[in-house]
TrEMBL record, chain A:
Keywords: Cell membrane, Membrane, Transmembrane, Transmembrane helix, Transport. The chain crosses the membrane at residues 21-40, 176-198, 218-246, 252-274, 286-305, 342-362. The keyword Transmembrane helix applies. This is ABC-2 type transport system permease protein.
UniProtKB/TrEMBL annotation, chain B:
This is ABC-type multidrug transport system, ATPase component. Gene3D superfamilies: P-loop containing nucleotide triphosphate hydrolases. SUPFAM superfamilies: P-loop containing nucleoside triphosphate hydrolases. PROSITE patterns: ABC_TRANSPORTER_1, ABC_TRANSPORTER_2. SMART domains: AAA (SM00382). Residues 4-233 form the ABC transporter domain. The lineage of its organism: Bacteria, Pseudomonadati, Bacteroidota, Sphingobacteriia, Sphingobacteriales. The keyword Transport applies. InterPro entries: AAA+_ATPase, ABC_transporter-like_ATP-bd, ABC_transporter-like_CS, ABC_transporter_ATP-binding, P-loop_NTPase. It comes from Olivibacter domesticus (Pseudosphingobacterium domesticum). GO terms for molecular function: ATP binding; ATP hydrolysis activity. Keywords: ATP-binding, Nodulation, Nucleotide-binding, Transport. Belongs to the ABC transporter superfamily.
Automatic annotation (TrEMBL), chain C:
It comes from Olivibacter domesticus. This is ABC-2 type transport system ATP-binding protein. The keyword Nucleotide-binding applies. One of its GO terms (molecular function) is ATP binding. Transmembrane segments: none annotated.
Length: 369, 310, 248
């Protein structure tokens, strides 16, 4: 036991004396959160919008004027037809379109109900959602004004019919927080653990450790524990950044959140140890960890691109990516405030993966070179 | 008693296409300082790894301190001190931290076997708080030796401890080995430097995975089968070429400031023959003498014989 | 041997902060000479060699290599020297021919010329069968011999060899030295470092660096006479014993 403690202490020395490791460990989350936080921020200004006004009367003009005064929306062109709107979208600068039908005013006056169409560029789900929200707000506001001035019944309602091109389901803007958590824990646990084991192989110290009474499996445990603790510290850092810098609210149980994260960290550590067993150079270990783990995490977790829009085969593959399940669990607990009864499935899958990976890692660990 | 034995050990890599160790057998007696001498790629490191149980041989048997390298690998791991070839300690840990770490890993403390490492440790003690990565080559070597000795092993296995280290540090290192030997530790050490051979009690010369000979260095040198001559002149390279082109000469190669030359059996008076050839070719400041073979001469000879057999 | 000086060093000094790695070293090397550059670990050999190869600027002092100034004409120096070390020799995953072609190209030789010299080189080394093999598959000794041939492929005035024979067997080591002698006889100046003291004896002259200074500079024979010992090993030990600093 004392041997294990000394070993763990040694691991901490390695981490705290290596500036690069420290930088990856604690710099990465800060940079990622800030980068994702502001790049994917829901507060977007000057969104380019085109309007097709088929109604062309006083009411529609009033609505258009109201939209044009918004500081968030930049109305580019008015009076385009459907084909032209499509062209604008394809050019990419325009992120949204508002289509006012021919009978907009008459419908409103006679039946008290009218429809307008909002089309957004769904490949940019956050902006799409933002546009929809802004426009809905403006239209609701417009309704109220009209109701007052025209003495039309307050029941009158305009129903924006929203269609998100390219990404019909849309995606919340805060989803990236659980995504970044998954990404960072994945990188740190997998890459740093595998590299630190492989480094011992490269330096020849592994050979000496093998030729010692120290149980070889202890090497793995001793490597895993410091990184488990450091990863939890890291997770806390991300959480604090999310809450205090990005104003994200943790809705569910904090304890459950930590438990799920610990489970995921152990999954990643097992993966890292497995990688270190099959590689002999730090570069290879790093390459496998980054390319083999980071890319799938980015693609298959669903926080950057929605899984539902991917080809079937990708959706099937995503089931084998641990971070996908962790992402789902954190989203449910942290953002939706759901309890364990809603995330038992994700927990079960992650547990299964951990047990599987860990047993392979232990089995593959060679007591010889 | 034999502390290390190898019997017909064979080790191949890449599914048998590369033969690293080819039917190697030798023994190291208890308390002996035994040298495994050969160039890079001769199979020295593979032999060390087989003996330290981190590598399995394809064929043959080996034992260390009475334990079988396959069956009793755990016992061996507890009773040997090992310095692998590329061993470089934890660079980011201080001298003291390294030493403490290895002491604990081996289930002991620095104090417990202090007597054994004292002489060596005293030399690096002033740098206790310096990181291992900031030590000089010679000091690193001393620290590594301390780490390998910390649990008072019965057998010390040192794989090329002096490679890339300068002459002064090398000399000091061999002095340390002698001291350790006096304390009864069996030492198996490998080196590519032929001149270190004479510092061992017995040596094995190894080349291309095969042991060419095993004996005390003096016996190997005495066993040199023919007369060996040393010669020089003002233009040594031209002399080398001139000798090589002469029929009476069996071999001629540079050796330090001289050429070392062997003659075919039929030549009786070697000295005058060599003088004669040199004079005929117009050399000046000619000096020829008969000499005793060194380990390096023996190694070269044995390599030639081995190739002739193939 | 004509007396043309190909390397001239006068009070060459290199400081890193308050650490003087190379301390006022001076020597001249003649064309076709085999010059052994010895020193304990950390004595400053590598630093001095880097300056002479045009890879680093001295802090003070003067030096010319192949007639070019180490301060102002580094590019010309690089064109006129060859370099080979134990660590970097050739690309293991290129064939022998590809390696030769690559290095020939690096030194700006013409395609025809490369082809002509390659054929000659393969012939002299007796590597016809192996020419299309990966360098990684060759035994260490052959690799080193090939690396040396590549280092002098562009017929440099000086070739720098940094521990070229480390770990090589005694027979191959001598074959290697045969090549060195041959190159020297053809007028190429050899500047070599080694840990093998018997190899130091093959040199026409050697210098021994201790703590950044050149402590001895003479022919091996004179050095041994001066210190009244029989081997270079002892000479080196006597000189380097008092060294205060070591590498890293």
């Amino acid at each position: 036991m004392k041997q294990l403690l000394v070993f763990i202490k040694k691991e901490f020395y390695h981490v705290f004396r290596d500036r690069r490791t420290l930088l990856i460990m604690f710099g990465l989350p800060i940079v990622q959160i800030i980068l994702f936080g502001f790049a994917l921020s829901s507060e977007v200004k000057n969104i380019h919008l085109v309007i097709a006004d088929y109604s062309k009367d006083v009411k529609s003009q009033k609505l258009i004027n109201k939209i044009m005064t918004s500081e968030y929306l930049l109305v580019e062109q008015v009076n385009l037809n459907y084909q032209e709107i499509e062209q604008e979208f394809k050019r990419g600068e325009v992120k949204g379109a508002l289509i006012i039908p021919v009978n907009f005013s008459s419908d409103l006056l006679h039946s008290g109900k009218s429809q307008i169409q909002v089309i957004t560029d769904g490949s940019d789900p956050n902006i799409s959602k933002t546009i929809t929200n802004y426009l809905t707000a403006i239209i609701v506001d417009f309704q109220q004004q009209e109701a007052l001035s025209d003495q039309v019944p307050a029941l009158l309602s305009i129903q924006p019919e929203v269609r998100m091109l390219f990404n019909e389901e849309g995606n919340g803007s805060l989803n990236f927080i659980p995504g970044v958590m998954a990404l960072i824990l994945m990188i740190i646990c997998t890459a740093l653990t595998s590299v630190s084991v492989v480094k011992e192989k490269e330096m020849g110290t592994m050979e000496v450790l093998l030729v010692s009474p120290f149980k070889p499996v202890f090497v793995l445990i001793a490597k895993a524990i410091p990184y488990l603790l450091l990863s939890l510290a890291n997770f806390t850092l991300i959480l604090l950044l999310a809450v205090f810098v990005l104003d994200v609210e943790v809705r569910g149980s904090l304890l459950l959140l930590y438990l799920e994260s610990t489970l995921f960290i152990i999954t990643c550590l097992s993966l890292g140890l497995l990688i270190s067993n099959v590689t002999n150079s730090q570069q290879t270990a790093l390459l496998i960890s980054l390319m083999g783990m980071m890319l799938p995490t980015l693609i298959f977790t669903g926080f950057i691109m929605p899984l539902e829009n991917m080809p079937k085969i990708f959706q099937v593959i995503s089931n084998f990516i641990p971070s996908r399940w962790y992402y789902l669990a954190v989203k449910s607990v942290m953002l939706k405030g759901l309890g364990f009864s809603y995330v038992w499935k994700e927990t079960l899958v992650l547990t299964g993966m951990t047990v599987g990976l860990l047993s392979i890692a232990l089995k593959k660990f060679k007591v010889r070179l | 008693m034999e502390t290390v034995t190898l019997q017909n050990i064979v080790k191949t890599y890449n599914n048998g296409s590369v033969k690293a160790v080819d039917d190697v057998s030798f023994t190291v007696k208890e308390g002996e300082l035994f040298g495994l001498i050969g160039p890079d790629g001769a199979g020295k490191t593979s032999i060390f790894r087989i003996l330290t149980t981190v590598l399995l041989a394809d064929k043959g048997q080996a034992s260390v301190a009475g334990f079988d390298v396959v069956k009793d690998y755990k016992e061996i791991r507890a009773s040997v001190g090992y310095m692998p070839g590329k061993f470089s300690l934890y660079q980011d840990l201080t001298v003291l931290e390294n030493l403490n770490f290895f002491a604990t890993v081996f289930g002991t403390t620095i104090e417990e076997n202090y007597e054994l490492i004292k002489d060596i440790y005293d030399q690096i003690k002033p740098f206790n708080n310096r990181r291992a990565g900031k030590l000089s080559g010679g000091m690193k070597q001393k620290l590594a030796l301390c780490c390998a000795l910390i649990h008072k092993p019965k057998v010390l296995l040192l794989d090329e401890p002096t490679t890339g280290v300068d002459v002064v540090s090398r000399k000091e290192f061999w002095e340390m080995l002698k001291t350790l030997k006096r304390q009864g530790i069996t030492i198996l050490v490998s080196t590519p430097y032929m001149d270190e051979a004479t510092l061992c009690e017995r040596i094995a010369l190894i080349q291309d995975g095969k042991i060419m000979t095993v004996d005390a260095p003096e016996n190997i040198m005495k066993a040199y089968p023919t007369k060996l001559y040393a010669a020089r002149s003002r233009e040594i390279y031209r002399l080398l070429l001139d000798y090589r082109s002469d029929e009476a000469i069996e071999s001629s190669y540079a050796f330090g400031e001289y050429l070392h030359i062997t003659l075919h059996n039929k030549v009786h008076d070697g000295l005058s023959k060599l003088n004669e050839i040199a004079e005929k070719k117009g050399h000046v400041e000619i000096q020829v003498k008969e000499i005793k073979a060194t380990i390096e001469d023996s190694f070269i000879r044995l390599m030639g014989e081995k190739e002739a057999k193939v | 041997m004509d007396q043309e000086k190909v390397i001239i060093c006068k009070n060459l000094t290199k400081r890193f902060g308050d650490f003087t790695a190379v301390n006022e070293i001076s020597f001249d090397i003649t064309k076709g000479e085999i010059f052994g550059f010895l020193g304990a670990n950390g004595a400053g050999k590598t630093t001095a060699m880097r300056i002479l190869c045009g890879l680093s600027f001295p802090t003070s002092g003067e030096a010319t290599v192949a007639g070019y100034d180490v301060y102002k004409q580094q590019e010309q120096i690089k064109k006129n020297i060859g370099y080979m070390s134990q660590k970097f020799s050739l690309y293991e995953n290129l064939t022998i021919l590809e390696n030769i072609e690559f290095f020939g190209g690096v030194y700006g030789l013409e395609r025809k010329e490369i082809k002509r010299r390659t054929e000659k080189l393969i012939d002299t080394l007796g590597l016809q069968k192996e020419a299309k093999k990966m360098v990684g598959e060759l035994p260490l000794g052959w690799k080193q011999k090939l690396a040396f041939s590549v280092a002098i492929f562009h017929q440099p005035k000086i070739v720098f060899l940094d521990e070229p024979t480390g770990g090589v067997d005694p027979v191959t080591r001598r074959q290697f030295w045969d090549m060195i002698y041959e190159a020297a006889a053809s007028g190429i100046t050899i500047f070599v470092t080694t840990h093998y003291m018997d190899e130091a004896e093959y040199c026409n002259r050697i210098s021994v660096m201790v703590d950044g200074k050149v402590e001895a500079l003479d022919s091996p024979r004179n050095l041994k006479e001066k210190h009244q010992v029989t081997t270079m090993d002892e000479v080196f030990y006597l000189l380097a014993r008092g060294a205060k600093r070591s590498d890293n």
